[in-house]
Amino acid sequence: MQPIERISIDLSNNCSKACDFCYNGSSPVGQTLWLPNDVIKLVSDCAQNGTKAVSLGGGEPFEYDGLFEIVETIKSLVYVSITSNGIPLLNENTFEKLRKNKPNLLHFTIHNPADSEEIRRTLYLFRKTTRAGIRTGLNFLVSASEIEASRKLVEKLFKMGLNDQQIIFIPRKFSQQPTPEQVAYVAGKEKFQSTYCLSSCMPSPRFCSISWDKKVNFCSYSPSKVPLEGLTYNAIANALQTIIFKKCE
Ligand code: SF4
Ligand code: SF4
User: Fold this and answer.
1) Mean pLDDT over residues 93-105, rounded?
2) Beta partners for 15?
3) For atom 7 of ligand 1, which residue has the closest CA?
4) Contacts by residues 19-23 (CB-CB < 8 Å, ≥ 24 positions apart)
5) How far apart are CA 95 and CA 200, in angstroms?
């Protein structure tokens, strides 16, 4: 088995935005099973075993108590990225805590190009975090029913000065899944950043997703998750070896 270089951890399935397409079913009454010390212990052991990067998501990570304690501790061990809908950062206290505990990378999600309020808020926060010295990017969800609106928004983002390195195009799953050609059209370029499995189901090597309920898999969307039996790199590796991988559907 290849070394696990990148790990994604869903800190909870609690999120006030409660999108109906959320892959981990997050809601305002979602649960939190991870304690900050659990995350720190696991990441510390993984870093000692060669893991280079950890991304923190959810649920909404900025609604998770203990996020900044985790970032402050693990940042010296691994490259830390956070994916957020941005909404909690409209609170100045939360933003100040972020300013004091900066991750290496922060990505805001854009879910609906037709939602002017979401776009206005996300771009406002994008500028604010960039000014605060935080490397910031966008996860742009591409839905099959919103191809033209998505294309127009991407043109606007490039005109504003965003570049290819700052936008990752995420194809929406299931009934709204775009074709690879539609994602390329939205991106407006032959080369663009997207998920590893854009053209066929192919779990990313050297990667592990750990869900809010402490189950591991090669991909966040795949249903073939198995429980994590300990807070160690070896526990992750052992669990991954038992997986019979299934495609999301
Ligand atoms: S904002 Fe993200 S985490 Fe929250 S419900 Fe929507 S998709 Fe899920
Ligand atoms: S299960 Fe396969 S197709 Fe679905 S997201 Fe994962 S790698 Fe991609």
Assistant:
1) 98
2) none
3) 22
4) 19/111, 21/111, 21/172, 21/173, 21/174, 21/176, 23/173, 23/220, 23/221
5) 39
Ligand 1 interacting residues, C-beta cut-off 6 A: 15, 17-19, 22, 26, 58-60, 85, 109
Ligand 2 in reach of 247 Cβ (< 6 A): yes
Q: Which of 56, 109, 212 to mutate to test the pocket of ligand 1 (most atoms within 8 A of CB)?
A: 109
Q: Which residues contact 127 (CB under 8 A, 6 or more apart)?
A: none
Q: What percent of the chain has pLDDT over 70?
A: 100
CA distance 105 to 175: 31
Average pLDDT of 181-185? Answer: 97
Those residues whose C-beta lies under 8 Å from the C-beta of residue 161, and which sit 6 or more positions away, are none
Nearest CA to ligand 1 atom 4: 15
Domains and CATH numbers, the chain: 6-241 (3.20.20.70)
**pTM: predicted TM-score of the whole model, two decimal places:** 0.97
The tally of CA atoms less than 13 A away on the side-chain side of residue 109 is: 20
CB distance 70 to ligand 2 below 6 Å: no
113-172 tens-digit pLDDT: 999 999 999 999 999 999 999 999 999 999 999 999 999 999 999 999 999 999 999 999
What is the model's pLDDT at position 196?
87
Ligand closest to CA 85? 1
Give which of 21, 8, 56 is closest to 196, Cα–Cα. 8
C-alpha of residue 203 to centroid of ligand 2, in Å: 6
Residue 49 has pLDDT above 90, yes or no: yes
C-alpha neighbours within 13 Å on the C-beta side of residue 149: 15
